[in-house]
Amino acid sequence: MLKIGLLGAGRIGQVHAVNIVAHPQSELVAVSDKFDEPAEKLAQMHGATVRSSEDIIADPAIDAVLIATPTDTHADLLEAATAAGKAVLCEKPVDLDLKRALDCLARCEPHGKPIMVGFNRRFDPNFAHLKAAFDQGEIGKGELLSITSFDPAPPPVSYVKVSGGIFRDMAIHDFDMACWMYGALPDKVTAIGSSIVDPEIGKAGDFDTAVTTLEFSGGRIAVIKNSRRAAYGYDQRIEFLGSDGLLAAHNVLENTIEKITAHGATKAKPEHFFLERYAKAYQIEWNSFIEGVQGASPLPVTLKDGINALVVAEAAALSAREGRSVDIAKEILR
Amino acid sequence: MLKIGLLGAGRIGQVHAVNIVAHPQSELVAVSDKFDEPAEKLAQMHGATVRSSEDIIADPAIDAVLIATPTDTHADLLEAATAAGKAVLCEKPVDLDLKRALDCLARCEPHGKPIMVGFNRRFDPNFAHLKAAFDQGEIGKGELLSITSFDPAPPPVSYVKVSGGIFRDMAIHDFDMACWMYGALPDKVTAIGSSIVDPEIGKAGDFDTAVTTLEFSGGRIAVIKNSRRAAYGYDQRIEFLGSDGLLAAHNVLENTIEKITAHGATKAKPEHFFLERYAKAYQIEWNSFIEGVQGASPLPVTLKDGINALVVAEAAALSAREGRSVDIAKEILR
Amino acid sequence: MLKIGLLGAGRIGQVHAVNIVAHPQSELVAVSDKFDEPAEKLAQMHGATVRSSEDIIADPAIDAVLIATPTDTHADLLEAATAAGKAVLCEKPVDLDLKRALDCLARCEPHGKPIMVGFNRRFDPNFAHLKAAFDQGEIGKGELLSITSFDPAPPPVSYVKVSGGIFRDMAIHDFDMACWMYGALPDKVTAIGSSIVDPEIGKAGDFDTAVTTLEFSGGRIAVIKNSRRAAYGYDQRIEFLGSDGLLAAHNVLENTIEKITAHGATKAKPEHFFLERYAKAYQIEWNSFIEGVQGASPLPVTLKDGINALVVAEAAALSAREGRSVDIAKEILR
Amino acid sequence: MLKIGLLGAGRIGQVHAVNIVAHPQSELVAVSDKFDEPAEKLAQMHGATVRSSEDIIADPAIDAVLIATPTDTHADLLEAATAAGKAVLCEKPVDLDLKRALDCLARCEPHGKPIMVGFNRRFDPNFAHLKAAFDQGEIGKGELLSITSFDPAPPPVSYVKVSGGIFRDMAIHDFDMACWMYGALPDKVTAIGSSIVDPEIGKAGDFDTAVTTLEFSGGRIAVIKNSRRAAYGYDQRIEFLGSDGLLAAHNVLENTIEKITAHGATKAKPEHFFLERYAKAYQIEWNSFIEGVQGASPLPVTLKDGINALVVAEAAALSAREGRSVDIAKEILR
């Protein structure tokens, strides 16, 4: 039984808490949050205690921490936790600043502790199934990957301002998905964006709609479409064209009901947002983390993966700003 | 080039006329109808002449006739046309009275002329594809066939009264489909019905909603669902459960558009009624008739097939009336 | 917190145990089974104790029992448990013998304890959604209900012999679904069956493939198709034709992946069997039972409902045996 | 009855010939081709005569010509035909060289004759339905349009070399579709490409896989995915995200059959290539041309539209070559 400290009792921390508690080999012993109320509520619900992050990290009885705090604290907590000998599951992104993230990697690695970054979508059973089918050669060589990733509604502009922008905040999941599918970092990134959904987002210097193309070695391409608003909910799809065919992961719908009337045939919408759509993915993510920490299988998402996605995001932001393709090796990793 | 006489210039006669004219090996030379106006209009449109049925049948220059007149004239015209040496394509049903239909068969057969009954659905590319897949063993042994067959709206009660009833008028297509799929006549027929769509139909002694089960040798079953009303249009589907799987022919939709909004994901309705849904089937039916008459391939629907469907309809009507299963060999064909 | 005794530690008992334990307001305190091993294993896994059924029923500290024992013990345990003041959730069927089930109802009712029969499918979110849409009038008046209910593979003949037959054992779920949808018991039942899947099932006096039609007041019809074998898994669908349209509950597929190659476009099969397909339904069923026992809402499935389904099954078996429609009021409930 | 001269008796000329002949208000009187055999075969099949292009254009009895010759002859023939007072339907593209195309426009316009460019996809009933739904505001303001356009197999490299490249030859259809949907020419074009399908295509200086993003005024975006190879056939889809939802035009499948076995649920592939997929579109296109020439409705695709698509193609080719976004007003139309 692994004893777990949860840093961060917000929305995503609450999702993880349920899975930590439900897992037969993990136990939630401590919760921290900068606000007392959510921490206490969560601790009480699951029989844990409220403690400071420092205290949790320093406690030798705690085996692993889950970092679900605001982004700007991730790198510091990662470094402290690994230094203290903890296994860590850290929510994405590692940091909004690539340099800081690279430093974090350099400081954490020597401790040799298991670190996993929370790219939850890799654990979605549908996407995992698509990836497995691709790896088994079911569509031959991968040529053109398409990812559709729309949120139901834009976040408040106040959030946009501190989010790092659509590429680092939202598309980063899709960049990880593309790198994972191809098993590589792209060579070039080309992005465009606009703020057609909410002009205030544009005034804040960000986009709400964007298209990014990634060029991988050998002529392999990925294209990622992002929008901060799909009136019908959360649109999360993948299509992968290969030399022998196409694999598609369609949306998960709210139910299987179809109604046919004089007005047409109506089915349900996609699951509304990530809490619904990825509920099972979060469970599987936690299972994978536990298995990885126990050495039963390698950790499926590394800190390096987290940084790679950030590298692509950095390149995309630069590309969209300057209206040209960005060479990752020469301009981002130089 | 086969010279064709068309008997009957109503809705279905008009459909056939277009296909006769469009076929490179058939020519519409004469049209008859008990009403002058539609006959003249149709003849004029396609460069044919209006003549009486007797005259058309007697003309040695005419190779084949297509009987699209009211049902109660089918048997007489069939007999006259085959006696006169014509090949015949006759709309279903042969006659509402089984005994009359059997007499017709007995009188027509000796002439040895090609006769085909217009079970258009056999020529629907989807149903034909399903049948071919089944015959190729793609689902193993056939066990349970389900046919959904709903019209968009009930006919006027005046028509219902002379229609022969839902089993002889509407379900007869589905009975033919079931016999065709299994390549056999059923042993037993069990039917129930109600007049929930329009009580006036019930007062006229008919049903508007019915379910018929057919038991074929070896325990093979078919179930046919009929309704005179589907608010969304013409519902024409087949599902065939076999030992190795299931084959389904879904409806043909009006288009491929899907609209997804906060209210759900809406697709098009099925094609509205038989003229739209079976437009292609009627073309292929005519091609098959021409090929059969020219000896290029056997006629795919025989007069015997037309009578078999009527036998099932007779049994279904008796079953529904008496609330019990009807044995075809003992009670209908005795 | 309700203290629960679980009678029966077999496959379905194990499913319930997990949900009892996971529910915040129920606690699994005791397990009984005629075999020691499964009872001990289950009790240990969930921190409960193994006791005899009698002991559990007699224990005043236990609030409710869940009866998941072999069918022939259901009625006795129901009577004993309600007499001892327990709330009861009893797996279907109440008894294979209708008279015995009616006696049970007569004996249990006076105790006034909450009794719910485990028709899990009512709690399937898709079917529940369909029912709600129907009740809200989305397709107008219900006219023709169709239920497809196929198992992935036939049970062993040894089971078939004690099962009560396909109508009491398997179709009973669908009969409950039909009664629930229409909110009524049918007037007439007409069924046919065959043993085409496995002739040994026929030799044992049962069918493996059956079609049952139910006639409800006002001309409303339901048709139920059952097969003990669908090579592709568990096929559980409903279609409801109403005056204004059609509602369909499609199968739940294993995933959302589609692969398109030169051989066609392939999607996943339906969830394999009831444990997968109805996992969520069992959870919701348990929630509903707890809410009902606590008085928060009425119990959604009563003992009377369980008996009604049995009445239909009795009529179906008689109908299939005698090749005629069976009048429920005159022949079954007389 | 309009008398039509058909210039070009190749594959696409043959498609048009059938529609010209079938239309009640057009008559195919003359055919030209640089090769005698196809011209004679086509003329004979449809009762037309073989003549030279010059002769056809000079004949005052001919009302309209359809230009289906090789691309490098389009502009000259357009100019000659309009100068001779003919209405013209010209296959795309107007010319591979934008300057030449602009000159052609300048020379043709003064004659005031109806000219239509053959962007057949606008007449596909599905895309037309999507466009109409969009124009009626069914998804609100258009924000992100996605076009998937894959051919079943790459053309021979010999063709690639004279094709003008993937943007002018293949994507031009999609560029027209995007301009038509938004009712505008984009401001900026950004494209990338690779030759992963066939490296020989790369050696010939072209791409076989490409992604183009178009930026329209107000932040509206279109993204176009092209591949010269989809192992499953012709993939032609559109998705349009708007402020209120999404409209999608799915592929047209070969049939409606679904087969479900232990290996999954398989449906048909898309229609194989443009002759099958767009058969109906070519008919409707011809109808629209006839209506336009007769003044019944404006011509739905103008010569200007043909040039606009070429402008976008020019920009895309430049963008892909230089790895940067291209400003249409400043760089292409300067």
From TrEMBL, chains A, B, C, D:
Domain of life: Bacteria
Natural source organism: Thalassospira tepidiphila
GO molecular function: inositol 2-dehydrogenase (NAD+) activity
InterPro entries according to UniProt: Gfo/Idh/MocA-like_OxRdtase_N, GFO_IDH_MocA-like_dom, Myo_inos_IolG, NAD(P)-bd_dom_sf
Protein family: Belongs to the Gfo/Idh/MocA family.
Gfo/Idh/MocA-like oxidoreductase N-terminal domain segment(s): 2-119
Keyword Oxidoreductase tagged: yes
Protein name per its UniProtKB record: Myo-inositol 2-dehydrogenase/D-chiro-inositol 1-dehydrogenase
Keywords: Oxidoreductase
Range of residues in the leader sequence: none
Enzyme Commission no: 1.1.1.18, 1.1.1.369
One Pfam family recorded for the sequence: GFO_IDH_MocA_C3
Domain annotation GFO/IDH/MocA-like oxidoreductase: ranges: 127-247
Enzyme class: oxidoreductase
